[in-house]
Amino acid sequence: MKKSKLKLLVKEARKSAKKDIEQSVIIQVKELTTNLAPNTKSVEKEINKGAKQLAKKVAKVLKFDTTVFAEVSEEVKQPEAINETEPVLKTKAPKAKKETVLL
């Protein structure tokens, strides 16, 4: 597998991990703050901002094993056999003609 393809897969994995971390932190901190005090817009905004920053820092540190991505992509390249006895026909619907009306 090409190096650029692996980098793309690692980037996507890091991005999804960042989103997961951010959402879990937001949920947990909101649960804690509701027990202590009522949530306000400013508190909620601060929680979201802090969770985003924390998720970004943690995602940078994460290490992904590229051999796993290579194995998964090889499995994807070998799809199951398609039934060739029934051809798939692709037809396009005819375009509607515009009618001009003269008054």
Report on this model:
The protein starts with a helix and ends in a 26-residue tail after the last helix. The protein is mainly alpha-helical. It has helices spanning about 5-35, 40-60, 65-75. About 65% of the residues lie in helices and about 0% in strands. The relative contact order is 0.13.
Query: Approximately what portion of the residues adopt beta-strand conformation?
Result: under 5%
Major sheet characteristics = none
Order of helices and strands: HHH
Shape: flat
Q: Cα-atom Rg, whole angstroms?
A: 25 Å
Low-confidence stretches: none
Question: How many helices?
Answer: 3
Overall pLDDT metric = 78
Spatial separation of the terminal alpha carbons: 66 Å
Tally the beta strands.
0
What is the helix content?
55-70%
Structural class: mainly alpha
Summarize this structure briefly.
The chain is mostly helical and about 100 residues long. The protein has helices at about 5-35, 40-60, 65-75. It contains three helices and no strands.
Topology, pairings included?
Blueprint: H1 3-36, H2 41-61, H3 66-77
Helix pairs in contact: 1-2
Keywords summarizing the entry:
103 residues; mainly alpha
